[in-house]
Amino acid sequence: MAKSDVKKVVLAYSGGLDTSIILKWLQTTYGCEVVTFTADLGQGEELEPARHKALLLGIKPENIFIEDLREEFVRDYVFPMFRANAVYEGQYLLGTSIARPLIGKKQIEIAEKVGADAVCHGATGKGNDQVRFELAYYALKPDVKVIAPWREWDLTSRTKLIEFAEQHQIPIAKDKRGEAPFSTDANLLHTSSEGKVLEDPSQDVPDYVYSRTVNPEDAPDRATFITVGFERGDAVAVDGVKLTPAALLARLNDLGRENGIGRLDLVENRYVGMKSRGMYETPGGTILLAAHRGIEQITLDRGAAHLKDELMPKYAELVYNGFWFAPEREMLQAAIDKSQEFVTGRVRLKLYKGNVSVVGRESPYSLYDQELVTFEEGAVAYDQHDAQGFIKLNALRLRTLGQRKKRMGK
């Protein structure tokens, strides 16, 4: 599709400098009508300025879409992912990754609604987000035209971006006139920071980069104890108070922030092939993961639990790489959701100076049998003499191998 064939495009619009420049660039380069979409994913920012800025840049009121997606985000994306205990490369809780398919889905829905023939995102040509957005677009609307300005334009430096903005009377915040110290992305699950002062992995993360957690050393000297209630694998209550998914995650975020929980300094392997260093703050998610594993400890059968742990890295990689709408992720999700049928109960946790620990768990579906594990006399469900035959059968092949080695003098 040629530039002249693009009549209307739906832009993922934050209201910030980069996407405002993209908005004007689309108008001047493609000569098309621009529809803006701004998602409230709990990033903690007022979104009305985005509407005002879009109007200022000539967008018709009927072409400005701002949606509160917090509940949908947590219910349909974050919670299914946490049922899998998904962690990328052993540490990253996928806060940015899991938000992109929802934004992409909404862009496609709006494109269908307004008759747009293209969608546009502000992700750079070096990062993962370009992949995540575009895989979502193509999965949901295979024939859609995708515009990725960072792969097309010649605005390759901050200076050129500023010059373009000034040329087109785009408002520039004062702190954007120089080199930004780092870039951030935020939603209800996490805040990520990368670039500039964080690019040297040998250097500590400066204190001013952290925005969502207190320094663990400055957290209260007394531990905080909480309980998290679960139903079929999803958290539904904190300290006995039932909450909606978004409200529950927000509550855990508050508790995590106060206790300095959820900081992560990580060098990760991007899908596009390079390593990058980022700083992540996921206070509520860190607590939620510990709690979910705690309730699974007593409600999941060993075979199911171990299979889940084998599947988890693949699931996490699919989310990280942008394959949320792929059949393999959906297949894994079906298996994971089946495992959660009896993952119901309460977990008690201790929060203290950056750490979260499970200190108690209970469930009406618990598989933990004290009669089986007790060291006291009187347990009749388990005969310790049975272990001898069990061990000998498991050792049979090892003994056979040992006998062959002995015959061969090895």
TrEMBL record:
User: According to its UniProt record, which reaction does this protein catalyse?
Assistant: L-citrulline + L-aspartate + ATP = 2-(N(omega)-L-arginino)succinate + AMP + diphosphate + H(+)
Any Gene Ontology biological process: argininosuccinate metabolic process
> Where is this protein found?
Cytoplasm
Give any Gene Ontology cellular component.
cytoplasm
Q: Which UniProt keywords apply?
A: Amino-acid biosynthesis, Arginine biosynthesis, ATP-binding, Cytoplasm, Ligase, Nucleotide-binding
Q: What is its EC number?
A: 6.3.4.5
Q: Which residues bind ATP?
A: A12, Y13, S14, G15, G16, L17, D18, T19, S20, A39, G122
Pinpoint the Arginosuccinate synthase-like N-terminal domain residues.
Answer: 8-171
Indicate which residues the UniProt annotation says bind L-citrulline.
Y92, S97, N128, R132, S183, S192, E268, Y280
Q: Which residues bind L-aspartate?
A: T124, N128, D129
- InterPro entries with a match to the protein in the record: Arginosuc_syn_C, Arginosuc_syn_N, Arginosuc_synth, Arginosuc_synth_CS, Arginosuc_synth_type_1_subfam, AS_cat/multimer_dom_body, Rossmann-like_a/b/a_fold
Any one GO MF annotation of this record: ATP binding
- Keyword hit for Nucleotide-binding: yes
Q: In which pathway does it act?
A: Amino-acid biosynthesis; L-arginine biosynthesis; L-arginine from L-ornithine and carbamoyl phosphate: step 2/3
Domain Arginosuccinate synthase C-terminal: start-end pairs: 182-399
Q: Which Pfam families match?
A: Arginosuc_syn_C, Arginosuc_synth
Indicate the quaternary assembly.
Homotetramer.
Which family does the record claim for this protein? Belongs to the argininosuccinate synthase family. Type 1 subfamily.
- The name on file for this protein is Argininosuccinate synthase
Species for this entry = Rhodoplanes serenus
